[in-house]
Design a protein that fits this description.
- The structure is a single chain.
- By secondary structure, this protein is low in regular secondary structure.
- It has a single domain, classed as Ribonuclease Inhibitor (Leucine-rich repeat, LRR (right-handed beta-alpha superhelix)), CATH 3.80.10.10.
- It is 14% helix and 11% strand.
Length: 213
């Protein structure tokens, strides 16, 4: 079904049973209006919400009321910040916020202990939360094409996570990272203080460990 006016979207949502668990909406202009949000919050059983490819600029704190959400897709919008209430979605398993204008992740995102995928590539992030290593169920962490200059040591807890950090501005690589076998820097060459290129390459090989071809 293709709906082109917000009035039609609201009418269609109003007709849905409130036990609906999956909603996907695309190609609307800033759909998170107060009226739309009030309707959306009535779907207390919602587990999957995709509102990617719209022109959303803000995510309201009320999003934290959708306690049963397991998948939240907000990619390809114009979002600049995430509310701290995102940390209340403790059932969340997949959070996709790629291709926005986000410069900082709230510390509360580290409360999402059931998260398995965090996709926040193509934003303006300059760092990651210090306690991101608390997300011990994380299997995929993608922060490609941001402006990150260093990585928190807590990432070293995520030994089973596929971590992709290329196309950033990473300046330091703590030696604790040698235990991470699935971290990818692509063709990036981070600079290390007081290190020559030769020293850097030697340290990088040691940090990565044996490579199987």
């Amino acid at each position: 079904m293709y709906l082109f006016r917000m009035e039609d979207v609201l009418r269609a949502l109003d007709a849905l049973p409130r036990s609906t668990k999956c909603i996907t909406l695309r190609y609307y202009t800033d759909i998170l209006t107060a009226k739309f949000l009030n309707v959306l919050l009535e779907f207390t059983e919602l587990e999957y919400l995709s509102i990617s490819n719209n022109k959303i600029t803000t995510v309201p704190p009320e999003i934290g009321q959708l306690k049963k959400l397991k998948v939240l897709r907000l990619g390809c919008n114009k979002i600049c910040t995430l509310p701290s209430e995102i940390g209340q979605l403790t059932e969340l398993q997949i959070l996709s916020i790629h291709s926005n204008k986000i410069t900082r992740l709230p510390d509360e995102i580290c409360n999402l202990v059931n998260l398995t995928t965090l996709e926040c590539s193509h934003n303006g992030l300059t760092s990651l939360p210090d306690n991101i290593g608390n997300l011990t169920n994380l299997k995929e962490l993608y922060v490609v094409c941001n402006a990150i200059t260093s990585l928190p040591v807590s990432l070293c807890k995520l030994t089973e996570c596929d971590i992709r950090v290329y196309c950033n501005k990473i300046k330091t690589l703590p030696m604790e990272f040698k235990q991470l076998k699935n971290i990818y820097y692509g063709n990036d060459t981070p600079t290390f203080n007081d290190m020559t290129v030769s020293d850097f390459l030697s340290g990088l090989l040691e940090a990565l460990g044996p490579i199987s071809i």
